[in-house]
Write a structure and sequence with these properties.
Its main location: membrane. It is a multi-pass membrane protein. The chain has a single domain, classed as Orthogonal Bundle (Arp2/3 complex 21 kDa subunit ARPC3). The protein has nine helices and two strands. With 237 residues, the protein is mainly alpha-helical. Strands 1-2 form a two-stranded antiparallel sheet. Helices cover 73% and strands 2% of the residues. Helix 3 packs antiparallel against helix 4, helix 4 packs antiparallel against helix 5 and helix 7 runs antiparallel to helix 8. 49% of the residues are buried.
């Protein structure tokens, strides 16, 4: 992703790794800015995670499943254009099950392990990646899910919430890169439109697939984890 933004802004032809901003790519001031912005969400999420595990220790396995789901999906790299890659996020499911604050912690841990074990993303850019994937994505998923739940179609709400979590993550990442590297002609807006537009070719269908996959996982949870879902007030026992 880092290489692609350089290509879009200054014309350099370099490989990219979409969504996870590469280690050392952001200018120091922007890396620090996103760290400062992301940390309060992470700390609040720790409190929420601690509370929910104390009140309902029986859901720890479900938490582990959500973390694994996010790790596996967001580690997948699907070839895109200009030598870059797109991938799912997997954060919508966790936001629906446990709320956006808990997912801020789980998503951040996933990003940390990917940076350390897979060289996917980085430590200096972890704050920016946290904000796009672990904070913004889950927030929109949680809000959209509860808004659409009023229609009475829970599975439709899950599908749309998960798909939008994926898309918003890429939109936020595009904004982050555009702010750090505005185009010489057109500034931040031009850089954002170029970066976001080039990934729309693969990311829109990928978001739809992620929404469908999340519904399939939800169906599986309904069949085998009814007690835990009832504990979280997501279904009636």
């Amino acid at each position: 992703m880092a290489g692609l933004s350089v290509y879009l802004v200054v014309g350099a032809a370099t490989s990219a790794q979409a969504m996870h901003i590469a280690e050392g790519f952001l200018p120091v001031q922007w890396a620090a800015f996103w760290w400062i912005l992301a940390l309060p969400f992470f700390l609040f999420g720790l409190r929420s995670l601690s509370r929910i595990t104390k009140e309902h220790p029986e859901i720890k396995l479900l938490l582990a499943l959500v973390g694994s789901f996010t790790f596996v999906l967001s580690a997948l790299k699907i070839p895109s254009v200009t030598g870059s890659a797109s991938h799912p996020t997997g954060t919508g499911l966790g936001a629906i099950l446990f709320g956006a604050s808990v997912m801020a912690v789980l998503g951040s841990l996933v990003l940390l392990f990917q940076a350390l074990l897979l060289a996917h993303g980085g430590l200096t850019t972890l704050g920016a990646n946290m904000f796009s994937m672990a904070i913004a994505g889950p927030l929109i998923a949680y809000g959209v899910y509860h808004l659409l739940l009023k229609t009475g179609n829970q599975k439709l709400a899950i599908f749309i919430a998960s798909a939008l979590a994926n898309l918003l993550t890429y939109i936020i990442t595009s904004i982050q890169l555009a702010l750090a590297f505005p185009a010489a002609s057109g500034g931040v807006l031009a850089a954002f439109l170029k970066f976001a537009g080039i990934f729309a070719l693969t990311q829109v269908p990928l978001a739809i697939i992620e929404g469908l996959l999340t519904v399939l996982v939800w169906n599986w949870l309904q069949e085998y984890n009814q007690k835990e879902l009832a504990t979280l007030n997501l279904i009636k026992n």
